[in-house]
Each structure stands twice: as C-alpha cells, then as structure tokens.
C-alpha cells in the first residue's frame, strides 16, 4: 500500500452543441413542450454495461475521498446566462409550469447526464422499468419541485470533485430547496371529521394526531425530500441529510394515512409509485441509522411494511431490491447498537449501575424480539421475482443482496448483544469457520462475515446491485480481524489458516469497494474505505492476548467513523 493514494479523475461527457446528435446521449435539446420525452428515456436503458467513472483504479491501495480537482469543466458556464427555472403559464395563470419551460444549454446538459449516467448509478438495476426513469420522468413533467431535485442531484454528480464549478450544483440545490419550501407551505389538510369519529376538540394530543393523518402529501413532495436527503452527501461529503429525515417522517406518515396504506389489502395492492416511495423511505432510514442516535420506537412507523410473508410476485425496487423489510430490520438493529454503545459510554456513579443494567436489559429484550423477526422473515423464491429487463442484474442478484443484508443485521445484533445467540443454527447459512481458533462469539461473527462476503463474491462486479453493496461491505469488513496468526491456531488440520482467510477477504472488500467507487464516482465511498482501513489497523495492533476477548467487539467501525469525522450517507 503506497503512502500517497492515487488521485482519480471524474470522466465527464464531452462538450457538444445542444442540437448535435449523439447516439450515446439520452436527450438533446429539451423541447418546449416537455423537459423529457419517452423516446429519450427508453434510449438510455438498452446497454448492459454500467459506466466506469474513473479512468484507472489501483485496487491495492486505500481510496482517497478526494477526486482530482484539476479536472476541467466541460461547459463554460459564463457564456450562458441561466434563466429562471420556470416560466409563467402563458394562458394567464400564475402557476409555474414545466410545459412552457425552455431549458438553458446548461440545464439541458445536466438533464442529459441524469438519464445517461445518474439513473444507472443510483439504482440496483437499469431498464425502462427503473423508477428513476419511468416514475421520475412522469412525475417531474408536472412538478417543478421534482425537476429541480433531478437537476440538483445530477449536477452534484456531474461536477463531483470539480471545485472550480462547485457553485453550479449548489445553485441547483438551492433552487430545489426553495421549491420544496414553497410546496410544503401549500400542503393542505382535509377538514377532519373529529365529531363523527368521536374525537373531542379539547383533546389536543389526539386532535394533533388526527390533523397529521389528514395532511394531503403529494407523491412528488415526498419523493423530492427523500432525494434531497439521500443525495446531500453528493454535494458535500460531510452532509448527512438528517435535517431532511426528521421532517420527512411526518410527511410519510401523513402520506400513508391519506393513501389508506394502514389497511393490509391496500398495502398488498400498492401501485409501482407507492412501492417505490415506501422502499426509498425505508432504505433512507437504514442508511441514516448509522449516523443517528434515536429512540428505537422512532422507527415503529415502518412496522406495517414488514410483512413476514412476501407477496406472490415481487417487483424489485431500485434501492432495496426484493428485501425492503430487511432494510427496516437493519435500521432497527443499528439503532439498538448505537443505543447500547451510548449506554456503555455513559458515566454514572456506582449507585447508577443498577439503572444502567436495567436499561441494558430493556435493550436486550428488544434485540431478542428483533432477532426473531429477522430470522422468521421469508425471502422470496427466485422464480417469484419479476424480470426487470436488465441483463446485468438477474433475480438471483437481488436475492443474494437481500440474504447478505439479513446476515448484516444479525452480525451487528450479535456483536452488540451476544446474549441473543441461543443457538448456532444461524451458521447453517454461512461458511464454516474452524471453531478451535477463537472464542464462540468470534467464531460466529467471522462466520457471518465470511458468509456475507461469500454471497457478494458470487455477484458479478458489473451487476447493478454494486451500487447498493457499500454498507454490507463495511459491516462484513469490520468483522475481519485481526489478520495476524493466532498462537493457538491449529496448523495440522490441513485447512487454510484463519488469518490467511481474513487477509483474503480483506483484499476482496478492498477490491469491491474500489469497484463501487469506479462505478458510482461519489466521494462517500472513499470515506468507507478510510474507515475500514483504520478499523483493520487497530485490530491488528491489539495484543495477541486479546484474542479471547474478540477484537471485532473492541474495535467498532461506527466509533471510528465518529472519531475520524467521516460520517456520510453510505447508500
């Protein structure tokens, strides 16, 4: 490993005039009648090859979170004066409309980049069924807000690492936030029938709940705030998007109520748009859970979407694939893990140990119940997964990623609450590890980590699911330690020594993270690499007599992330 990490350059589209044809492009000049056309959308999804956004990646070194800042911009912004995003409706109305919006060359270029690149790297699959193509393009035709969000995230990706043009994505992001503020102020409530439902007017708490349930939250508003939160780190790697998350929870609850999704039959018959929004919200919660100390009950609103029995036919979602409930379980697991670590670091007097013990017992009870939910969840049969038309991403890939994230939730749960492990039956799903080398907990955690990485290794690196594997790689990778020979290791069994297995899997994690970086081209991936390298360094530095106390519990990747101030969105 070199002392100075190699710098990477983002490959940007070639400069071209707006009217120039380009067979690799999704869009040319946007017509005055619509910012996107169905033909333009369809033309983007015919290729299996996913774009490489770095020219060269050296797999044996740590990723730098920095991208070459000397990359020249492919568009001279000073030559074109940006007109307002929206034009008034010529028919005389005051409502802004995209129908009469003529995009500037810059906006057209950014929109083209969205359909040619962002749709691919921001989803686990790409075809005409990709909601980031089909649903977003349909919705944003009538939604200046969503159109602004698309330009914001696309500009952030297009100018990733180009410090000289950093003001351009910021301008689009500011515009989108302004539209969001306007839309939120316009959200109305249906007059609540409190008398008919028996709710008394003087019951302020109940009345507030009733009011929340009557908010009319449009689909585009909910999707917009999810996209702004999830892509905040695209603009600034230190951004977590958490300010958006807190507000979106209330909007989501109101959206669920207004669409009657608390009813089981309604949930079973959700539209593609509704399934897209639900899965996106749950995925965002899972990614945010590693950054946020919160009450376990704060995630209870997701429970209605955790049906242990999947429907007869599963249509993959762009972020959660075919395991949307698993990401809800993961969010809950990580929340309990963070609660437990906060409890351990809490300084109390001797008389307070009883209180600390009581709090831990409460957390342990929740962890035990959650383990049962995770183990009882039934993944769909591969034959019941709908074909999404992406030759690079098969139903088997979606199933593999779901299995991997279920093991990730169990790994984090058992690492934080070893008492929850009442049987070794869970290891039926993972690769065998020689039990004589380490204590039982290390045996279990390494088995889960090896199992996760073994699953990921079966997925080709050009699979669309590469964009959703990062957090799984971090969780599994953080359990790989130490990579030094154990004094008690059995060298006569004929098996590969355990430290060599650890070294091999660390190498795989490095290579796969480099592949993620080469595919998506986003700086948060570099943070993940830095965190794991620091975790492994600390594990290997532990004295050998710590073997029985398991280094995987003494060095926690979330602690390292916090200490090094590397918090970001890893989704």
From TrEMBL:
The keyword Nucleus applies. GO terms for molecular function: DNA-binding transcription factor activity; transcription cis-regulatory region binding. Residues 25-43 have a biased composition (Low complexity). Keywords: Nucleus. It comes from the Eukaryota. Its main location: nucleus. The keyword Nucleus applies. InterPro entries: Fun_TF (IPR021858). GO terms for cellular component: nucleus. It is found in: Nucleus. Residues 1-94 are annotated as: Disordered. GO terms for biological process: positive regulation of transcription by RNA polymerase II. This is Beauvericin cluster-specific repressor bea4. It comes from Fusarium torreyae.
């Amino acid at each position: 490993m070199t002392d100075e990490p190699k710098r990477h350059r983002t490959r940007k589209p070639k400069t071209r005039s707006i009217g120039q044809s380009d067979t690799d492009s999704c869009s040319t000049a946007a017509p005055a009648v619509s910012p996107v056309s169905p033909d333009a959308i369809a033309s983007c999804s015919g290729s299996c090859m996913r774009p490489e956004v770095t020219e060269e990646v050296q797999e044996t070194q740590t990723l730098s979170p920095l991208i070459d800042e000397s990359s020249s911009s492919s568009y001279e912004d000073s030559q074109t004066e940006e007109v307002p995003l929206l034009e008034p409706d010529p028919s005389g109305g005051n409502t802004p409309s995209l129908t009469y919006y003529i995009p500037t060359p810059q906006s057209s270029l950014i929109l083209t980049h969205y359909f040619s690149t962002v749709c691919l790297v921001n989803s686990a699959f790409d075809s005409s069924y990709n909601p980031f193509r089909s649903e977003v393009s349909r919705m944003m035709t009538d939604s200046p807000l969503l159109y602004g969000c698309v330009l914001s995230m696309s500009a952030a990706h297009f100018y990733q690492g180009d410090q000289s043009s950093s003001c351009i994505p910021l301008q689009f992001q500011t515009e989108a936030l302004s539209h969001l503020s306007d839309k939120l102020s316009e959200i109305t409530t249906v007059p609540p029938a409190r008398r008919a439902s028996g709710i008394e007017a003087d019951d302020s708490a109940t009345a507030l709940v009733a009011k929340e349930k009557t908010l009319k939250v449009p689909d585009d508003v909910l999707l917009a705030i999810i996209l702004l939160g999830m892509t905040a780190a695209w603009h600034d790697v230190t951004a977590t998007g958490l300010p958006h998350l807190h507000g979106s929870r209330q909007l989501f609850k109101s959206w669920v109520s207004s669409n009657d999704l608390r009813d089981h039959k309604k949930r079973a018959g959700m539209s593609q748009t509704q399934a897209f929004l639900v899965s996106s919200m749950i995925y965002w919660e899972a990614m945010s859970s590693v950054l946020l100390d919160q009450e376990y009950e704060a995630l209870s609103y997701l429970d209605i979407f955790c049906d242990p029995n999947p429907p007869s036919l599963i249509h993959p979602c762009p972020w959660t694939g075919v395991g949307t409930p698993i990401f809800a379980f993961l969010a809950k697991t990580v929340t309990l893990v963070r609660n437990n670590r906060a409890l351990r670091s809490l300084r109390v007097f001797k008389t307070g140990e009883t209180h600390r013990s009581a709090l831990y017992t409460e957390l342990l009870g929740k962890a035990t119940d959650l383990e049962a939910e995770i183990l009882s969840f039934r993944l769909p049969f591969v034959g019941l997964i709908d074909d999404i038309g992406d030759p690079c991403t098969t139903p088997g890939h979606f199933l593999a990623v779901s299995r991997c994230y279920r093991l990730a939730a169990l790994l984090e749960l058992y690492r934080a609450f070893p008492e929850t492990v009442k049987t070794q039956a869970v290891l039926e799903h993972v690769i065998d590890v020689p039990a004589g080398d380490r204590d039982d907990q290390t045996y279990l955690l390494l088995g889960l980590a090896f199992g996760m990485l073994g699953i990921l290794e079966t997925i080709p690196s050009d699979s669309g699911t590469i964009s959703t594997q990062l957090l799984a790689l971090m969780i599994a990778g953080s359990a790989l330690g130490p990579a030094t020979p154990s004094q008690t290791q059995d060298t006569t069994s004929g098996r590969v020594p355990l430290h060599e297995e650890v070294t091999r899997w660390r190498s795989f994690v490095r290579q796969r993270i480099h592949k993620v970086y080469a595919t998506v081209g986003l700086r948060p991936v570099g943070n993940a690499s830095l965190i794991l390298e620091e975790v492994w360094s600390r594990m290997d530095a532990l004295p050998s007599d710590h073997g029985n106390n398991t280094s995987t519990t003494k060095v926690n990747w979330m602690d390292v992330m916090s200490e090094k101030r590397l918090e970001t969105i890893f989704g």
